[in-house]
Design a protein that fits this description.
This protein is of the alpha/beta class. It has a five-stranded parallel β-sheet with strand order 3-2-1-4-5, sandwiched between helices. α4 packs parallel to α5.
Length: 162
C-alpha cells in the first residue's frame, strides 16, 4: 500500500499510522546551519515519531550563460542532499527520512512544502547572500509565510554544540 492510501481498518493514511507525529521539513542547502538544522530535525522527529523531509532547491543562476554544458545545478542539488544526509546520518539513513529536490525559488518551495507539516526548519544563513545579516532572505520569508511553525537554526557547529 502506498503512503496516502487508507486501508479499510485505518482512520487515516498509512503514513500517519506509522508516524503519528506528522512531518517535519528541513531546508538543506549544504551550509553549516542547514546541516545543524537537519541534525536538530532528526532529533525532534525521532522523539515525536515524525517523518523528516530534507528539501533541496536549485535554480539556474541569473548570470548563467546557458551554454555551459558540463555543469548541472540539479546534479549539484542532488549531491548536496546526498552528502548532507550522509554527514548527518552516516551510511544508514533512517527509513523515516526522505529527500525532495525542487527547482525554483528556495523560499517559495520551502513555504509550499510547509503546508500540512508540523514544523519547518531552516538555517539562518544559507550559502548565498551578504555576510553579517542576522537572517537570510529565505529564512525570513519562511518565518513570515510558512503554513506551520518555523525553527531558524544558527550555525552551532563552529561553537562545538551539536
Amino acid at each position: 500500500m502506498s503512503a496516502g492510501t487508507a486501508s479499510p481498518n485505518a482512520t487515516g493514511p498509512e503514513e500517519e499510522r506509522i508516524h503519528p507525529g506528522g512531518r517535519i521539513v528541513v531546508g538543506v542547502d549544504g551550509s553549516a546551519s542547514s546541516r545543524s538544522g537537519l541534525r536538530r530535525g532528526a532529533r525532534i522527529a525521532e522523539r515525536l515519531g515524525c517523518t523528516l523531509v530534507g528539501v533541496t532547491v536549485w535554480d539556474y543562476p541569473q548570470s548563467w550563460p546557458g551554454y555551459v554544458m558540463d555543469w548541472s545545478p540539479e546534479a549539484d542539488a542532488q549531491a548536496i542532499a546526498r552528502d548532507t544526509a550522509e554527514d548527518v546520518f552516516g551510511a544508514e539513513v533512517p527509513d523515516w527520512y526522505s529527500t525532495v529536490i525542487r527547482t525554483g525559488s528556495a523560499a517559495r518551495q520551502l513555504i509550499a512544502e510547509s503546508e500540512g507539516a508540523e514544523m519547518l526548519i531552516v538555517g539562518s544563513r544559507g550559502l548565498g547572500g551578504f555576510t553579517g545579516l542576522l537572517l537570510g532572505s529565505v529564512s525570513r520569508a519562511c518565518a513570515e509565510h510558512a503554513d506551520c511553525p518555523v525553527l531558524v537554526i544558527h550555525d552551532t557547529e563552529g561553537a562545538g554544540r551539536h
